[in-house]
Design a protein that fits this description.
The protein is elongated, with a radius of gyration of 22 Å. The termini are far apart. It is of the alpha/beta class and 332 residues long. It has 11 helices and 12 strands. The structure holds adenosine-5'-diphosphate and magnesium ion (MG). The site of magnesium ion has 4 residues, from helix 4.
């Protein structure tokens, strides 16, 4: 009974979120890795939409703290299951929406695993970005009788606040580490019958580790890198908090990352954040701050997601028809 009511509420909530185009948040818990010493997970309990963490007293009352998200994936969730809940969002890029998916979490929590997959990629283990691309190609092929699609791909790296498209600078002959990159896909669909054009896009971003930089003792170039990484993450945090407070000025221009994501965060996009946590007790401080950040992100209400439609072809054709009719009328 109660469980069903909860489930129904959650469905309704997700539908409303879909209409509003708010930022969806999915939480994923990494399993303990083989070869790690045995320890007890910080995750006390989870279900499809909530997670409870066992915490030292300083982080929460009664040593437990709960968080609610649009979806929670436990340590045994497969890549296929994760993708199944991401697919509808990805497909809306073909319908003219801007879609943005980013992975957040401390180093080692599973961001690259979700977005790209593990080192040895198999059909089962590939992550969201390969699955998303092949899904877009599959659906565009299925629709080819009615819509002609043009799909272009960029692989963007933001490194020390410099933006590079790796496919342009280095070609396709390298296997890139997806961290620091985002994969950007532009989709242009032209409805053959009406000539109407839809322009969608998809950003897939594997963010840098969210752990506080002062902990890692880095010097020289590595320090510069760490500071830049920190800058884009803190700029992202600032953008999120001014969006959640509905401020009229949103500081997108403070980093290359937020400039790049402006379209996706600015209102008319469909945005999903995968927040990753590690189960180890020594990570509990980062886990709690990650989940708190994620909770803040989930309160951001964007405007209704909007389709990028372009009727200029239709307009042009209508004008031509009107001109021809006028010319005919003059001749008669
Ligand atoms: P991050 O990108 O956040 O630094 P990784 O994705 O590299 O973390 O994950 C760290 C390690 O944990 C990798 O060896 C990865 O394959 C493994 N791992 C992460 N998530 C999972 C998962 N859901 N199932 C199995 N192994 C995982
Ligand atoms: Mg990574």
């Amino acid at each position: 009974g109660y469980q069903r009511v909860l489930e129904e509420n959650r469905k309704l909530y997700n539908q409303v979120q879909d209409l509003k185009g708010s930022i969806r948040v999915y939480c994923r818990v990494r399993p303990f890795l083989p070869g790690q010493p045995n320890s007890v997970s910080t995750v006390d309990w989870l279900d499809e939409g909530s997670i409870t963490i066992n915490t030292p007293a300083k982080y929460g009352k009664d040593g437990r703290k709960s968080f609610t998200f649009n979806k929670v994936f436990g340590p045994s969730a497969t890549q296929e299951e994760v993708f199944a809940d991401t697919q509808p969002l990805i497909r809306s890029a073909l319908d003219g929406y801007n879609v943005c998916i980013f992975a957040y979490g401390q180093t080692g929590s599973g961001k690259t695993h979700t977005m790209t997959g593990p080192k040895e990629l198999t059909q089962e283990s590939v992550g969201v970005n390969y699955r998303a691309l092949s899904d877009l190609f599959l659906i565009s092929e299925q629709r080819k009788e009615t819509i002609s699609y043009l799909i272009s791909v960029q692989m963007i790296e933001i490194y020390n606040e410099q933006v590079r498209d790796l496919l342009v600078t280095d070609g396709l002959n390298k296997r890139y580490p997806f961290e620091r990159n985002c994969l950007t896909v532009h989709v242009q669909g032209r409805e053959l019958a009406s000539g109407m054009t839809l322009r969608g896009s998809m950003h897939l971003v594997d963010l840098a580790g969210s752990e506080r930089v002062d902990k890692s003792e880095v010097v020289g170039d590595r320090l510069k890198e760490a500071q830049h990484i920190n800058k884009s993450l803190s700029a992202l945090g600032d953008v999120i908090s001014s969006l959640s407070q509905k401020n009229s000025h949103v500081p997108y221009r403070n980093s290359k990352l937020t400039q790049l994501l402006q379209d996706s965060l600015g209102g008319q996009a469909k945005t999903l954040m995968f927040v990753h946590i590690s189960p180890e007790p020594d990570a509990v401080g980062e886990t709690i701050s990650t989940l708190k950040f994620a909770e803040r992100v989930s309160t951001v209400e964007l405007g209704a997601a909007r389709i990028n439609k372009d009727n200029s072809d239709v307009k042009e054709l209508k004008e031509q028809i009107a001109n021809l009719k006028a010319a005919l009328a003059r001749k008669e």
